Structure formats: structure tokens, C-alpha cells
Recover the amino acids of this structure.
């Protein structure tokens, strides 16, 4: 089994054992629980140059985040966009793997993500005696409530607020750029069509209408396939 | 290793973008033997191995995010960027010039927004209008016949409005405005700011039987597999290649133009970028269309006893008068567009409406105009979608942030509720803004690189301030709540850095005085009659219009001149 296979499912509590032992609070750890997610493809084909293919292959072969960091990100993403929804959530969209790829792709993401996870653990240990994934679910939500709102002024929480905002951005972008995200949004585009203006019921709803003078300049879609010809005065005559 | 191409060509064309593509098409069509040299590789958007059009974000591991090689996103068709491996450039003191280069067949026509605006009569005679810079040696009447031919040959949608400095053309019909554009129109009208259909090189109607008709995916930037948008490769070069008159040399970087004892060109020296080997190609004429700055670089690197300061540089003007369009932008949240009905409004690429410069002749504290491009709509989610998901809550008295399934509601609530404006303006060309050879730095192939020296003047800075005021008024008139803060004097009013708009021109400007210009009005070097420039280097001034349409019109005019001169045995 390769690393990616392993990563699909991680044991939450055992990974935190080292930290628990060192703080002497092993007793407070929640019972072991597996967290798993839908894996993402490990190869892509979408019009890349040879150089780009090499670059992406190198990223896939690399690992940057530790298993502890990944499981923490998985738990966090799951809180941000839970899977208890008909259109699925962050874990169904393979978010931990997406975050890992982006972190490898962008040098300037590496430290903020690593440091952000560490801050979260520091905060959980200081307040609840174990790292983030090993405190109780209620305690985790308590932490999130402190750092999920950018208007909170407490200076001590600012690094956490910044990290949480970053993870919320990555979670939503990672989810809404998947098929299930498209379904959740109801996105209708990216398909061949004949644009003929805003639907009438939408115009009505917004109190808008097309001016006759403007429409005269617009394409008559029933003649779009007739080859264009003009008279000498620049008037389109077909 | 040095190889010599077997045959002598009638014309060697350097660069396959708008200018080089047009010259290739026209000169090959006239029966001339053409060598077309491109520094990057072959490209065909219809080739499944190169296709990015109509791909969904999940087909990319980074969901369409930008990379160093694709700064405008993972699916953008243009391979190139601000920084190229092995091909550095440098900036002189107080300069932050950005130099964007494409390395592929079709050059930067794979990247542009397809906005195709003719220059107007005033744009060729700006010195007569404001006493700054210089007039072109030609006027609108000289270029108009080529714009007319270009409209019919390449295709452009738009509308005839009878505007003096935004002339009418042979337009294909325009696409209808989108909803946010209707809001813009309404707001602009209330301020007496005119709005017209955009002018874009996209086929909204069949132009010929070679190319398809737009199917409204909004993805011209990914290159169109049915060639319904204009790019140099699909529209100009492929047809020319079919004629058998053209030898295409890809992955071939021109180092210098070789000249003989009489000072005339005999060919070019090139480097194969894949294996580093050298190649000499000989020909009767050379057309440089490598982009304004790359062409200047080649000329400056073409030193010989007859051309000691570089080919075509007896005036000392090669590289000078470099100028780019100005730019500034602003966005607003449009509460009227919250909780939208969702439908497919991809349309053609970018905006369907625009505002051309409307204050000509007004008493302002800057001299040149700008136009406005409108953005917004329910675009396809890609990397970045959902960032700052509910930031607009701030304007609704609700809390920003949070987590959980309520974020889904925020996403839908604010989807497409944004209106943005980007301004593109004309700058005043300056002799003191220039590129030159860096005396010590070379690229991977040992070719001396460019060093840029460029500062905006008070004209551009004041223009940017005016842009900011205008954008605020227009966005608010459309019902928008302004986002971000208005950049002030400390940030040059949000004025883009020179080079950033990727409209750099003027480095080999045309003129009738050989002491103050590099080429004549046909792009022919004053110093070597068989060397021509067919890119935007010859522009005396870059109007607030995007330069591509004028590059192609002038390249066609240069091509006709070359054919005529060859027929008269002057070349």
C-alpha cells in the first residue's frame, strides 16, 4: 500500500500519542476513531506540456505534511463543511489530499499550514490538555468557535483566526471545484450553448429589459450559421 | 554545432504572434518562400493532448490555480509568463517593469482578451491634439483599408456607433448583455457615461467554412478547438502552412540578424532551444515580429562594423519610447444580485459591453484617455472560488466567518453578486523610458538580456486618480457597494506597473525623420532596407485601445509593401 492509500484513512488518537505522553495528559484523550475520506486521483491529463507533467509528477511523489498534520486538517475540514448533507462535504471531496497538493504546489502555503496546525495543538494542549484531534468533539468545537470569526479582537487568538480563515478558503474552494460542489451550487455553464440573453423571468424579477435599439445590434441566433456579408457601408446584410 | 538551412528564403519571419502570423499568411499567400521562426513549441488547441477548453476544474489537481508557467491559470492556453526559466531580464534604478513573454506558436494571441479596437484619427495624431510626444507619420486614412480587410478576414463583433475616434467597422453582431452588464448600463446612463457593445474577435456568426461559430463557453483564453476566436496560429498560420510555402521552425530562438558588407541583412542566427545547437537561416528579407521588446533586443544584439550600435540603431532610438497601457481596477458588491436565479451566462470571453473614452477635449489634469471594461457574472468555479465566502455580510449587518453547512447558503447567496471595472488607458511616450542590453547579464544561450528603465509621468498618475473616481461613481450608480479601499497617492492611485497590461509598444518607432525614428511608415528599417518590423515596436503612441488589431493591420500593410517592393525589384 502506498502513502496515498494509507492516507485515505487515519487513526486519530494514536497519532497524537507522542504529544499526549509528553504532556502527561494521556488520560484525557478521546477514544480512538478513524477518519477517512474519498481519495482523489493521483494522475491527471489535461493538456500539459512535458515540463508541466514532470513538475506535477514530482509533486505527487513528494510528501510534505505529516500524518498528524493531515489528520488534523481532515478533522478541521470536516467541521468547516460536514458530510451530513445530500451533496456531500469536505471529506467526500477528498479535501485533505487537495490541501496537501496545494501546499506542495505553493511554497508560501507550507509554513502557514504547518504553523497553523501546530498553533491549534498548542492551543488545545494549553486549554484542554491534548492536541486538537485528541480533545473531545465538544472541546474542538469550542476552539473553532473562538477562531472562526475574524471580528474577534483577542490578540492571542489572531494566528488561529488567520489559520482557520485560510482553511475555510481552501475547504470551500476544494469542495466547490468538484462535481458535488457544482451540484450543490447548481452551476449551469461550461457546456456548448447558444447565448441569447438573460432569461425573461430573470429580467422581470430584476425589473430589467433589453432596449430595442440595443437588440438591433445583437446577433440573430437563427442566422448564426449564415456566412456574414456586408454592403459597402459596413452594414451586415446576411 | 552549427547547421545551415538548406535553402534561401524570400522572407524570414521572426515570431508567430499577431504581427508574424499576419505577415506569414499574407506573404505566403503571395507565393513567397517563408521561414517562420518561433522560440516556443507547436500548439494546436484541437489536439486532445493540448486541449484545456471545456475542462472542469477537477480535471486539474490544482483546480485551475495559476502556476509560474501559466500565470493566468492552469487552463490558460498561453505558455509563458512573467519569469521564464533561463531567460532573465533586469531592471534599472527605480524601475519595476514587468515583461510577459509567450513561448509557443501563436505567441501572445493565445492569451489576449480578444478585444479588438481600431485606433481612431486622433490616435495617430496625438501631438496635434495635446502637444506631447509625436504624431505618427501615417494617419487613420492610411490604416483604415487594412482595418476594413482585417474585420472581414479575421472577424470581429461589435456595433457601428458613428463615433469619430472609435471608428465603425465591418462587424459581426454583438452578443446580448448579461444581467450585471444591464446594471452597469443603467448606472452609467444615469451619469451620462456612454456604453456600447464590446468589440471582440470572436465569431458570433459564421465568417467562412474553415472556422466554427462561437458556442459561448467564455473560454477564449483556453484557445478554441473550433477556431471561433482569433489566435494567430489557428486563423493565420495553419492556413499558410497548408499552402506549402512556409517552413516552420519551432523551439528556435533568434540570436541576431546577420548583415553583409553592404549593411543589408543576409539572414538570421538562431539557437535550437531543445539541444542548444546553432542554426543559420539565409533569406532576402527579414521581418522581425518577436514583440516590441524582443525585437529591440535582437536588433541591439545584431552588432556589426556597419551597425556598431546594433542594427537599425544609428538614431540611438532602438528600445526608447517603450510604453505600456495604464491600468486600474475596482470591484463592488451588488446587493440586487444576491440569491440569483442560476442559469448559464458564460457568453463570449469577458465583457459584452464597454465604455470607450468619452471625455475627449475636456479640461483635465492629464492628457490621454482610457476605456472601461466590465466584469462580473456567474462564472465557472475554479481555484479561489469560495475564498472570503461571506465577506459581504459586513454590509448586511451580519457576522463574517463561521463554519458548517450555513456556508453553503452563503455561497449561493453571493454567487455572481459582484461587478467590477478595469480601466485601460493611454500613456505619454517618453524617450527616457527604454530597454537596453544589460552589459553583463546573458541568458542560458549566452545572449545578452534586456534591462528596463521606466517611470510613469504625472500624466499617467493623474489619469489613474481619475480612473478611481470614475469607477467609484459608476459602481455606486449601478447599485454597488465598493469593495476594498480606494488607493491614494501613496499607491499611485492603483496604477499598474509598466508592462503589467502587456501592451508594450514603441521600441522601434516609425517616423519620417531617420534621426528620431527606427523605421519608415512601412516598418522598414531606415538603416537596412531588407529588414522590417511587424510588431508593436513601430507604434509611435499606444492609444487606449488594445494593440492587437493595429499590429495586424500594420503587418498586413507592411506585407503588401514588401510584395510591391519585390515586384519592383527594389528588394
Amino acid at each position: 500500500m502506498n502513502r496515498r492509500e494509507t492516507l485515505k484513512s487515519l487513526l486519530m488518537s494514536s497519532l497524537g500519542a507522542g504529544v499526549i505522553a509528553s504532556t502527561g495528559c494521556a488520560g484525557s484523550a478521546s477514544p480512538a476513531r478513524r477518519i477517512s475520506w474519498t481519495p482523489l486521483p493521483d494522475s491527471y491529463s489535461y493538456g500539459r506540456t512535458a515540463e508541466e507533467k514532470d513538475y506535477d509528477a514530482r509533486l505527487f511523489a513528494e510528501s510534505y505534511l505529516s500524518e498528524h498534520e493531515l489528520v488534523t486538517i481532515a478533522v478541521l475540514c470536516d467541521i468547516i463543511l460536514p458530510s451530513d448533507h445530500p451533496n456531500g462535504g469536505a471529506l467526500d471531496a477528498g479535501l485533505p489530499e487537495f490541501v496537501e497538493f496545494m501546499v506542495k504546489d505553493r511554497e508560501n502555503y507550507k509554513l502557514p499550514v504547518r504553523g497553523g496546525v501546530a498553533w491549534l495543538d498548542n492551543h488545545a494542549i494549553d486549554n484542554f490538555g491534548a492536541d486538537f484531534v485528541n480533545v473531545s468533539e465538544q472541546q474542538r468545537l469550542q476552539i473553532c468557535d473562538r477562531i472562526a470569526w475574524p471580528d474577534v479582537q483577542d490578540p492571542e487568538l489572531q494566528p488561529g483566526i488567520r489559520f482557520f480563515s485560510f482553511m475555510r478558503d481552501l475547504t470551500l474552494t476544494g469542495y466547490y471545484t468538484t462535481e458535488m460542489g457544482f451540484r450543490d451550487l447548481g452551476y449551469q455553464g461550461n457546456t456548448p450553448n447558444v447565448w441569447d440573453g438573460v432569461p425573461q423571468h430573470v429580467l422581470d424579477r430584476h425589473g430589467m429589459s433589453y432596449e430595442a435599439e440595443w437588440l438591433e445590434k445583437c446577433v440573430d441566433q437563427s442566422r448564426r450559421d449564415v456566412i456574414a456579408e456586408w454592403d459597402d457601408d459596413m452594414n451586415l446584410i446576411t | 554545432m552549427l547547421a545551415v538551412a538548406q535553402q534561401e528564403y524570400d522572407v524570414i519571419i521572426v515570431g508567430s504572434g499577431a504581427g508574424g502570423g499576419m505577415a506569414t499568411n499574407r506573404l505566403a499567400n503571395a507565393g513567397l518562400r517563408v521561414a517562420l521562426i518561433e522560440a516556443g513549441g507547436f500548439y494546436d488547441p484541437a489536439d486532445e493532448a493540448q486541449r484545456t477548453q471545456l475542462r472542469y476544474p477537477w480535471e486539474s489537481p490544482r483546480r485551475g490555480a495559476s502556476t509560474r508557467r501559466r500565470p493566468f491559470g492552469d487552463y490558460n492556453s498561453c505558455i509563458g509568463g512573467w519569469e521564464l526559466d533561463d531567460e532573465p531580464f533586469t531592471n534599472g534604478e527605480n524601475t519595476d517593469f514587468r515583461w510577459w513573454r509567450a513561448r509557443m506558436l501563436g505567441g501572445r494571441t493565445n492569451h489576449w482578451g480578444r478585444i479588438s479596437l481600431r485606433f481612431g484619427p486622433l490616435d495617430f495624431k496625438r501631438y496635434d491634439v495635446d502637444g506631447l510626444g509625436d504624431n505618427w507619420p501615417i494617419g487613420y486614412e492610411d490604416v483604415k483599408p487594412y482595418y476594413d480587410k482585417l474585420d472581414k478576414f479575421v472577424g470581429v463583433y461589435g456595433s457601428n456607433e458613428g463615433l469619430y475616434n472609435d471608428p465603425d467597422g465591418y462587424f459581426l453582431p454583438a452578443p446580448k448583455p448579461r444581467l450585471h452588464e444591464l446594471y452597469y448600463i443603467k448606472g452609467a446612463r444615469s451619469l451620462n457615461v456612454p456604453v456600447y457593445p464590446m468589440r471582440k474577435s470572436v465569431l458570433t456568426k459564421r465568417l467562412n467554412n474553415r472556422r466554427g461559430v462561437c458556442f459561448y463557453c467564455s473560454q477564449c483564453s483556453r484557445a478554441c478547438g473550433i477556431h471561433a476566436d482569433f489566435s494567430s496560429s489557428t486563423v493565420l498560420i495553419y492556413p499558410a502552412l497548408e499552402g506549402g510555402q512556409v517552413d516552420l521552425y519551432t523551439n528556435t530562438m533568434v540570436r541576431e540578424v546577420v548583415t553583409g558588407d553592404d549593411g543589408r541583412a543576409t539572414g538570421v542566427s538562431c539557437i535550437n532551444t531543445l539541444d542548444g545547437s546553432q542554426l543559420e537561416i539565409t533569406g532576402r528579407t527579414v521581418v522581425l515580429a518577436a514583440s516590441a521588446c524582443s525585437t529591440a533586443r535582437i536588433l541591439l544584439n545584431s552588432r556589426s562594423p556597419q551597425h556598431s550600435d546594433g542594427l537599425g540603431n544609428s538614431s540611438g532610438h532602438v528600445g526608447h519610447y517603450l510604453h505600456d497601457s495604464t491600468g486600474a481596477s475596482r470591484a463592488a458588491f451588488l446587493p440586487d444580485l444576491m440569491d440569483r436565479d442560476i442559469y448559464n451566462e458564460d457568453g463570449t470571453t469577458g465583457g459584452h459591453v464597454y465604455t470607450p473614452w468619452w471625455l475627449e477635449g475636456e479640461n483635465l489634469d492629464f492628457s490621454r484617455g482610457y476605456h472601461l471594461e466590465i466584469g462580473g457574472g456567474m462564472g465557472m468555479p475554479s481555484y479561489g472560488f469560495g475564498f472570503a465566502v461571506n465577506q459581504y455580510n459586513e454590509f448586511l449587518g451580519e457576522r463574517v466567518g463561521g463554519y458548517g453547512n450555513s456556508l453553503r447558503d452563503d455561497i449561493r447567496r453571493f454567487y455572481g453578486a459582484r461587478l467590477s471595472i478595469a480601466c485601460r488607458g493611454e500613456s505619454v511616450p517618453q524617450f527616457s523610458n527604454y530597454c537596453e542590453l544589460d552589459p553583463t547579464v546573458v541568458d542560458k544561450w549566452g545572449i545578452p538580456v534586456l534591462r528596463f528603465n521606466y517611470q510613469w509621468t504625472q500624466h499617467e498618475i493623474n489619469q489613474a486618480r481619475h480612473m478611481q473616481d470614475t469607477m467609484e461613481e459608476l459602481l455606486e450608480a449601478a447599485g454597488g457597494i465598493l469593495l476594498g479601499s480606494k488607493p491614494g497617492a501613496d499607491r499611485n492611485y492603483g496604477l499598474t506597473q509598466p508592462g503589467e497590461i502587456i501592451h508594450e509598444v514603441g521600441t522601434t518607432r516609425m517616423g519620417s525623420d531617420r534621426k528620431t525614428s527606427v523605421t519608415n511608415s512601412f516598418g522598414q528599417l531606415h538603416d537596412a532596407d531588407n529588414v522590417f518590423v511587424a510588431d508593436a515596436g513601430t507604434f509611435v503612441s499606444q492609444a487606449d485601445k488594445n494593440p492587437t488589431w493595429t499590429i495586424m493591420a500594420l503587418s498586413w500593410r507592411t506585407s503588401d509593401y514588401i510584395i510591391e517592393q519585390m515586384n519592383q525589384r527594389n528588394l
Observations:
- Chain B touches chain A through 88 residues (CB under 8 Å).
- Chain B has a mean pLDDT of 97.
- The longest strand of chain B covers residues 278-288.
- Chain B has nine helices and 19 strands.
